[in-house]
Amino acid sequence: MFYKLGSLMMKPGAKLVLVALAILFPLVAKNEYQVYVMATAFIWAIAVYGLNIITGYCGQLNLAHGGFFAIGSYALGLLTADYGWNFWPAFVAAILISAFLGFLVGAVSLRLKEHYFAIFTLCVGFIIYLLLDKWEELTHGAIGVRDIAAPSGFGLVDFSETTPFYYLVLVFLVLAIWFMGKLSRSLLGRTFIAIRNGDELAESLGINLMRNKVLAFILSTTYAGLAGALYAGMIRFIGPEVANINHTFDMITYLLVGGIGTISGPLLGTMGIVWITQSLQFLEAYRMIIFGPLLVILVIFIPRGIVGSFLTWMHRKTQELGPAKRRQESKVTAATTTEAENNA
Amino acid sequence: MNLFFQQVINGLTLGSIYGLVALGLTLVYGILHIPNFAHGALYMVGAFMTYVLMIDVGAPYWTAMAGSAIIVATLGILLERLVFYPLRHSPPIHHKIAAIGVLLFLEASVQVFWGADFRRIVSPYHGILRFEGLIIPEQRLLIICGAMTLLIGLQYFLRKTMTGATIIAMAQNRDGAFLVGIDANRVAMMTFGISGALAAIAASLYAPINLVYPSMGNLVIMKAFVIIILGGMGSIPGAILGGMIIGFAEAFGGFYLASAYKDLISFGLLVVILSVRPQGLFTKGAH
Amino acid sequence: MLKIEHLTKMFGGLAAVNDVSVNFDAHKINAIIGPNGAGKSTFFNLISGLHQPTSGKILFDGVDVTAMRCDHVAKLGVGRTFQTTNLFEQATVMDNLIVGHRLRTRSGLWDVLINSRRLQTEEKECRDKAREALDFVGLAHVENRFIADITQEERKRVAFALALATDPKIVLLDEPAAGVNPEETEGLTNLMRKMVKNGLTVCLIEHKMDMIMRMADKILVLDHGEKIAEGTPEQIKSNPVVIEAYLGSDDDAAA
Asked: Where are the alpha helices (DSSP H) in A281-304?
């Protein structure tokens, strides 16, 4: 029965099984290209987890998310290619830069309500693209950045190879999901959710709106910057295209399909769509023709995505079956116990 | 002097186009509180419909523009019925995401049918007027006059007709409007219809001096949003005034400063103004 | 406990609240009534800090909270419910209530990262408080139900519980009995009496006249943003100004 399968999937052990499968994947993959696609999907999933924090949990539609991914990529790329930094220091710097810029943008933009915030971040995302494309002295303009360093394996591992890089990304993905889980169950996560439910109610509960919204924003840009930096380290070449608004729209789609505001939604959505589009390569041109109506249909009929709907269904089933199970158990007990215990 | 005058004409031209687009956007926002991210796509479809009607059907410029306006108005109404009406009880974030979905769909569909290449529309007004030593390209003059005519026509429609009055009533006081028996659905459909028509006409007027391509709406829509935030969401004069400000800023800024950065002007303005006044320049209170 | 002095709020040229002065005593049930659009919700918004008054003073327990931000006012002990309950429908009642005690906790991002003792203690504290509040409103049995699956009246009680979980001194209830049948209204009335008995002060906005007349200790009547009367139910019932402005309407008297 589906319910049994569902409850199995929700047990903690299920997560370990997934991690084990992920670890085994490169061994069963048909070729290196598949590992490469999986690694790219992992990177995007990390970015979508970031989007989940600000948009899913805190309820603010951030249309500049792709821009921060790009900032992470360019920070890493420029520091290693132009300034000769080693990968790891540049990686940390890229994350810090994304977080810091997130703080600046967040502090200004989160004072805006609802629609203004979305519009403002739409423009911020576009400004980032324009700057990356036109500010040639800093970013090489449309030419892009080449010869980005691969992560240093300190002589033990060669991260310029796909499979080792895959495992590196997997580590970060697991960390990203682990933190996401911790956050969502914590008081801080619940504070974000309260803000999503309504600014006024949250404030009346004594929640400092700006401080929490900005914190959520910084967390989300940190995730985005980290993912972007990994992306640059994997592909070793980036151009302004990485800041194209379409990436943000893609991530929104992944998040909505998987389940906005859930823990496994971002992973499921990203994996699902990336692999489906991979296997349906010939439909590449029609991608957005499908994504577009998909978003509309999701938002009207399945707003909580696959995982969200699953969780609601599981919860309701548990409530239904709960009393029935208890009745069944007490029948069994009654048949095998003494009358004294029956009466108790 | 001549150069200066050219920039004034350019400013008026850009301002007219931006103003018309912003007008459609602000109508929808003012009445339905929906930031229609798909508006830029409607603009783009308007240009393509004019192109198709002129090239494939062989219609003359004005007829093609009228046909395009009708098609995009219908598209707008469909949008309202199929997408925004079902979402009327959903949280605002869903409206925005749905609008994005429509945007992606329209842009991709156009690209599949017509490819991503740039196309030209040749209007019958490609001449140049000379007036006391000053040069005015015909199409630009047409844009300016056309926008002004549309604006006057729209004001007349809203102020002097019953239907127009219902739209204004709903914009000013939704609940009051319901109490008086105004049909919200009709108003919503009309608003979207008018908004679509305005976008199509703006695109058709501008296309001959620009190019037609699937992503032509993206930049315009972002500037239109800047305009309605500056001019006040839901304010018609605000949309026109804001359009002119941005139009002139771009014309003069693009000419006297670096042209590569001229697109940044409007966004820079937005960032500065919203940082100082988060509620926008001319807002009365809530939104 | 709550002292309002010449409170005024202008929106553009319109005075939503105009020179209202009133004292609300502690451990009492205070009601605010008035026709639609009288400015009652705005009045609450001014007290709880969601709007800044144009002029006037608000003193809560002697502290000047006039210009104070909403979350600070909440921390001082002002709890609040709204006309529309903004609860997260696809989550359990308990999940919704835990954040109610958040304002009394100090855990932040660092605590989450290192899973500190403080975080664990505070989370337990919040959970206990939530359970206590839920129990107080008589809904302990729906702790694990989704908000979407409980009745409208139960949702109103959960909103009460949320306000109670903040450990308030006074609760501002905005139309707590709206959309609730007479029997349930009686239940909510008893709940409010219980709150007062337990040391709280209640301030509510309502349209249901017989409910107000039966349980209020003091009534403030607003019309077009102005105070037109103040007093006990007896005084209000026989006040000609009030009768003319409001009680004359048949619909309201029947509610």
From this structure: 287-301
How many domains does one find in chain B?
Answer: 1
Distance (Å, whole) CA A174 – CA A23: 11
> Along the 255 residues of chain C, how does pLDDT read in single tens digits?
889 999 998 887 788 888 899 999 889 999 998 887 778 888 999 999 998 999 999 999 888 998 889 999 999 999 999 988 888 888 899 999 999 999 988 888 888 888 888 889 999 999 999 999 999 999 989 888 889 888 888 999 999 999 999 999 999 999 988 888 888 888 889 999 999 999 999 999 988 888 888 888 999 988 888 888 888 888 888 888 887 776 555 444 444
Supply the CATH classification number for the domain A2-330. 1.10.3470
Domain end position, chosen among C167, C188, C204: C167
Q: pTM of the prediction?
A: 0.89
Instruction: Supply the range of the domain harboring residue C146.
Output: 89-167
Q: B-C interface: how many C-beta pairs under 8 angstroms?
A: 4
Query: Are the C-beta atoms of residues B99 and B106 closer than 8 Å to each other?
Result: no
Measured in angstroms, the CA of B254 and the nearest CA of chain A are apart by 14
Q: What domain range includes position B243?
A: 2-276
Residues C173, C56 share a domain: yes
Largest CA distance in chain B: 59
Does one domain contain both C137 and C18?
Answer: no
By the 10 Å C-beta count (0-12 exposed, 13-18 middle, 19+ buried), B201 is classed as buried
**Residue of chain C whose Cα is closest to the Cα of B286:** C11
Enumerate the residues of chain B whose CB falls inside 8 A of the CB of residue A303. 90, 94
The residue out of C167, C196, C215 marking a domain boundary is C167
Residues of A with CB under 8 A from a CB of B: 55, 59, 61, 108-109, 111-116, 118-120, 122-124, 126-127, 130, 134, 245, 249, 252, 256, 285-289, 291-296, 299-300, 303
